[in-house]
Amino acid sequence: MSADDVTAYRRIILDLYQSFANRRAMAQAAELARLLRLDLLGVYIEDEAVHELAGLPFARELRLPSHEWVLVDADQVAADFRHAATTAERMLAETAATLGVASVFQTMRGDPAEAIAGLLRASDIIVLTEPRTHGELLTGALAQSWRAALGAGASVLLLPPKVTRRRGPVAVLVADPEDRGLITAARIALAADETLLILLTGSDATLCEAAVRTARAIGLPQGRVRTHIVAGTSAQSIVQGLAQANERLFVLSCDMLSQEHAEIVTRIAAARGVPVLLVACPSG
């Protein structure tokens, strides 16, 4: 794969149904869009199931602070969705403008996971926010969005509950000198004026030299490319290998992992406190 192939990325998608009013997620999505020179699409989905529930005569909701069960007001539900969408659109526009990124806002109505799945293409990166409770990633709408992304050949940027660092090296796990993850990470490091830290799972001198050449071909000077050997591709090995890295972002390709992509990526993001970009494997 050549460096030019990374330009196959066209847009970053932020699921505002999952991360409504989350300025941190918006800022991270806009920052990556700026570094990779991509369009930013914010999508807010009105959950059709909630609308349908509000239309049922027996539907009740627990009203706080009175703790009383009252009828669900369909008009109020619709108004709440409109308000949420308007707020999300304004926040996205403000965040994108601050970073000088072009953004588009889109509203949809339907099943949130199915709506996102219908939008995704192999040229997309979707931003997902890790829940504060470990394991929630593997269930519910967020898990469905994850599976939809991989099924569409899209890449995933997983944000931890709290980002620890905003500056530092861009780290990438590499097994192939033309790995799409390596090329993507090198381009991000170059644009962000950061060092690229290449993690290797063995002491293969030929692979190491070839990976460094790939990074240099992107435009990184010798002094901004470092290498480090890790014990393996498990979450524990990767986290241990990054112990002294102080990285701002970790990148890896899905073909570096077992089928438990979500479990491994969420553990790395939580342990390191940095976003993890899982680059989709090329099809075919």
List keywords for this structure.
284 residues, alpha/beta, Rossmann fold, 2 domains, ten-stranded mixed β-sheet, two-stranded antiparallel sheet, 9 helices, 12 strands, elongated
Description:
The protein has two domains: 7-49 and 75-159, 3-Layer(aba) Sandwich (Rossmann fold), CATH 3.40.50; 170-279, 3-Layer(aba) Sandwich (Rossmann fold), CATH 3.40.50.620. It is built from nine helices and twelve strands. The protein has helices at residues 23-36, 48-54, 74-99, 112-119, 140-151, 180-192, 205-218, 235-241, 261-272; strands at residues 11-15, 39-47, 60-63, 68-71, 103-110, 124-129, 155-159, 170-174, 196-200, 225-229, 249-253, 276-279. The two termini are 13 Å apart. The relative contact order is 0.15.
